[in-house]
Amino acid sequence: MSFITKSFRSCENDRAAQSTFYFYSVKKWLIPILICLAISASAQNTLTLEQCVEMAWVNNLQIKQAELSLESGESNLSRAKSDRMPNLNGFASHNYNWGQRIDPFTNQFANTRVQSNSFGLSSSVDLFSGFQNKQNIKAQQAALEAVLFDLEAQKNDVALAVSSSFLAVLLADELRLVAEKQLLITQQQLNRISKLVEAGSINVGSKYDLEAQLAQDEANATQRDIDFNLNLLQLKQLLLLPANEELALTKPSSLELEPDAKLESTATVYSFAETNMPEIKRAEKSLIQWESQYKSAQGGLYPSLSLSGSIGSGYSGLRTTPINVVQVGTQAIGSTESGEAVFVPTYDSDLQKVAFGTQVSDNFNQYIGLSLNVPIFNRGVVSNSMQQARINQDIAELQLEGEKQVLLQKIENARAQALAARQLYIANQKLLASSEKAFEFATARFEAGALNTTEFNASKNNVVMASARTARSKYDFVFKTKVLEFYMGKPLSFKE
Fold first, then answer.
1. More confident residue, 116 or 462
2. pTM score, two decimals?
3. Distance from CA of residue 318 to its chain's centroid?
4. Which of 90, 197, 301, 362 sits at 20 to 30 Å (Cα–Cα) from 144?
5. Is 320 helix (H, G, I), strand (E, B) or coil?
């Protein structure tokens, strides 16, 4: 189930499948065009999470391979449907023969070069083949839908990875701001202490301590910048963007979650996910595919009946017809019982080749017939095919159960991690609040000269660590809560 765009549902019949494939084909070309137009229209615009996910879907190589597999599956289904239709083939030949032979059109001996032509049409259709064609169509239909759900599963995996990376960039940016804020605080205190040192109101050691702290804060700020750039690079790589390309993100305005928000139970989440997640749908379609393959192989045990027919004609250069017949005499062919000779007239004539059109008309022939094939022994081909299909069917059943187990474990882990992240977020919020109050008091005492630099820096560093831990736990809580909602069919999106 796709978490941002509409998910593809199971194709229960050919018409529904064709509608889904048409929608997918339009979407496949429309999304890249819209994204390119949006990016080219304003290269400086920041990208939302949804736009990043769409871009990753367009550029990801595994998704492109899955799309090609989908096209291959459509072709296999089309071929399976075509197997039910009769075939039609035309043939034609133009031949020359030398030496003695019997001409097929005149049934005469020929010992000279003879030209001959033949042409026609032939067709055949399976009337019954043990329902193999029907089952093969069902198998290819299920295989195509399995590929479709596999594509959706891959898109979900990519979307989850992009979402995690997107939030990691936002976290790194927030930690960078915290480091810059702490650097500014130290710089302000150093400026104040420097004036007091110049006025002789305070020991110069306090200035040195703050200068060391300033260097440490600068190093921390530099590290946060590095972390931010590395996380941004990782996101660019997921989007297949060049490392030197500018990329700015739109920070959602609804990252704050209610710590006491209700988390659905594992049973509730799994009940929904089991019937909607593409991994389960893919495994179910794979099982249907091999069940149909088994029935198709089983059809090889039944007799098959086919109808065939043809029409054709031909031409022979040996065929002639006499013209201008003239009696030239007689010829003795025997004698009677009394010894009298028996004569027959002899003729002389000119011979003329029969015209091509006349021969085509005279030689026109038609054929139609039924052919019954009864399998008796085929070296175990059918039984071996059935056995292999049965094994694949058993494998598909185990894969379906395995996918369900993996899905349940993912949901259990997601819920446990969401609960743990919520508890840690609540604890870190309390820690941050206490650290900030302590730092406010420490700042007042430090400015009043009642607190030394070391104690002031320690209090400030406690705030830094508490802020970082709170930020990390917040983003961790946000992502893991969204993952749990994702299994409930809710989008991994945020209000901008």
1. 462
2. 0.75
3. 63
4. 301
5. strand
